[in-house]
Amino acid sequence: MLVVSAYRQYRYSSEMALLSDSTSSIVTHLALDERELAYIDATGTPRPYVIDPAKLPLLTNFRRTVGGDNFEFQVSVLYMHENECVLGPYGPTLQEEKMNCTLIFAATIFENDRYLPAKIKVVAWRA
Amino acid sequence: MARLSCYIYNNKFMREGRGIADVLAIAMMFLLMVMVGILLHAYMLTPLRSATDRQLQLKSEYLYKTMETAWIEPYAKSYLKAAADNLVLTTPTVPGEYLRTVMENTLGYLLPQDYAVEITLTHENRTWKLIYPDVGAPTGKRFSHSGSISVIKAEAENERTILVQATLTLFRVG
After folding, report:
1. Are B112 and A114 within 8 A, CB to CB?
2. Of the candidate ranges A6-15, B2-11, B77-86, the one whose mean pLDDT is the lowest
3. Max mean pLDDT range (A1-5, A51-55, B170-174)
4. Which of A27, B96, B123, B132 is the most buried (most CB within 10 A)?
5. Closest alpha carbon to A108 in B84, B150, B78, B86
């Protein structure tokens, strides 16, 4: 009983670690790839870590394969402009019964011709 | 009769000896199972702790990049660039006190809960440092990201580019 329970706990924590790493990978892909959310400035130079809010509603694929496993995710961008503004969430409805991982990373958003500090929030779960 | 009683005694002794061996074997197996259970319980959080560390390392990198790219309102200058100006220029664009206040407000918004940050900029023997919240020097596990910021300094009729080393360290409070 003790060994079985310990093994189950071990599998659970390994699964959580995998989900955390996969969510980090999804965030990085979104924030660094100009084909996803990364901003391209007026000179045509991609600006990794800078989110283009105009690209958020254009995201259509909320499914990613990381290490051979399929994941679905929701993404939102939060930033301070007098009060906190929230863009999103974009993506499929969160499935509460499935184990999910929420990660919030600092980022920059290009809004009203200014680079503002922001947060990118991604919730991911196994598809 | 004496032979018979001796045979019974020996047989009983052998049976008792084998019984003890069985009990010892079962006890050893039980102990082994308990130890495996304890070891699994002790190490089961290791993958999760490692994943959290990787996540925090990535968070420190994102926070550094945000400080490098986001502008201080109402100036069109990034936080780290403004701090580098304050370190090497005699008349920086963003006043020092204002820079610290705005930077603290922004870090307060961006920082993960229960974590503090130390930002250090160095050039030659000069240092600019900010710890927010002000909890003293970092202790325990630290997650750092470094880079360099270039500042153009006007000298007589020439301009000189100075490279300032910047390091951002994320650490747990308490």
Report:
1. no
2. B2-11
3. A51-55
4. A27
5. B78
pTM (two decimals): 0.84
> What tens digit of pLDDT does each residue of B124-147 get?
889 999 998 888 888 888 999 999
Interface touch B78/A49, C-beta < 8 Å: no
Specify burial of residue A80 (Cβ count, 10 A radius: 0-12, 13-18, 19+).
middle
| Distance between CA atoms of residues B80 and B128, nearest Å | 11
The total domain count for chain A is: 1
Please indicate if any CB of chain A lies within 8 Å of the CB of B54.
yes
Quick one: B109 and B131 in the same domain? yes
Closest residue, chain A, to B56 (C-alpha): A105
A20 touches chain B (CB under 8 A): yes
Smallest CA–CA distance, residue B106 to chain A, in Å, is 7
Q: Where does the pLDDT of residue B46 fall: very low under 50, low under 70, confident under 90, or very high at 90 and above?
A: confident
Q: Same structural domain for residues B32 and B68?
A: no
Q: Which domain holds residue B26?
A: 1-44
pLDDT at A109 over 70: yes
Range of the domain at A113: 2-126
Can you name the residues that pair with B6 across neighbouring β-strands?
A: none
Question: Do B63 and B92 sit in the same domain of this protein?
Answer: yes
- B70: nearest CB among A3, A16, A117: A117
Report the distance separating Cα B80 and Cα B61, nearest Å: 14
Token pair listed for B106: 């922004």
Contact list, B52 vs chain A (CB under 8 Å): 20
Number of other CB atoms surrounding residue B17 within 10 Å: 10
Q: What is the ipTM of this complex?
A: 0.92
Question: CB under 8 Å to A65, separation ≥6 — which residues?
Answer: A71
Tell me the pLDDT of chain A averaged across its residues: 90
The residue in chain B having the minimum alpha-carbon distance to the alpha carbon of residue A83 is B109
Is A15 in CB contact (< 8 Å) with chain B?
no
Domain of B62, CATH number, reads 3.30.1140
